Amino acid sequence: MKTAPFISLACLIAGLLPAQAQDSNVVLVIHGGAASRRDKINTPESERLSREGLRAAIQKGYEVYKKGGSSLDMVEASIRVMEDNPVFNAGKGAVFTLQGNNELDSSIMEGRGLKAGAVAGVTVVKNPITAARAVMEKSKHVLLVSEGANTFARENGLEIVDPSYFRTEPRWQELQEYLAKEKARSEIPQQPDGMWSTVGAVARDRNGDLAAGTSTGGMAYKRWGRVGDSPIIGAGTYADNEAAGVSATGHGEFFIRYAVTHDIVALMKYKGLSVQDAADEVINRKLKAAGGEGGVICLDKRGNMASAFNTDGLFRAYVTREGAITVKLFKE
What we know:
The protein is an alpha+beta fold. It has helices spanning 9-16, 44-66, 71-83, 128-138, 146-155, 169-184, 252-257, 260-271, 275-290; strands at residues 26-35, 104-110, 116-122, 143-145, 199-204, 210-216, 237-239, 244-250, 294-300, 305-309, 313-320, 325-330.
């Protein structure tokens, strides 16, 4: 009598599990900010440019992956591309403060040892994500701000630019329109729906190490040195090899108060939620109920990606080990 071939219990279980619960093959996820279809800056042309910008950024990160680069290298490389692209609110093309300045925030974190670095309110550093990484690797601190962060960047040989480098005419005109309405008081000035958009990336390298990073020009027309969630570890950025890496975009005050990125990781570690369920719990239940708008991208320790947002859209892209790229803007 023939004996049936032996099938291990592990293989049997794996065959019964949904695809998301098994090892996946995503190596990099990026975002270019949350979006509203009501925002006048979201035209067909700007959406085309955003798609191209996301594709260029993720291709750069994937090139780093193919060369054996670390997850930190992938995150930094892809975010630098978006910081250099004026279509996004990070680096060149960042929104203006009420006083007519560009003040930039950024953070980065690695999941193996939970090391992190961040800068806030920098005005002359061409690529704030690189400054954030330098803080992590070349100082004993986590967060440096304003002139102290600018000085640190100079002392460590980072590329320094004149503040005028970040200015773009469309952003400048947005500020002028806002100021004119405020002065005339003919109507209550409305900040754009995407006033807090940002960029970010989460990566998983060949060693299984996770990293996450976020970079932004902050909230449009902000005052008093306001800093949002992007440079705050646990709010705008978090990575832990035991669970996932997360990068956020949205109304920073809510993301800080609800420790959004850390909460997602905590739900995975302590309640056993999947990466998608954890992201939905925080963004589409907790945050939405509180009135907070925005979204996150996530990549878990097995390479499963997730995104969650309670706005019309989240400009995002991801790439697999084989190099297959997917770009999405709205709920498509």
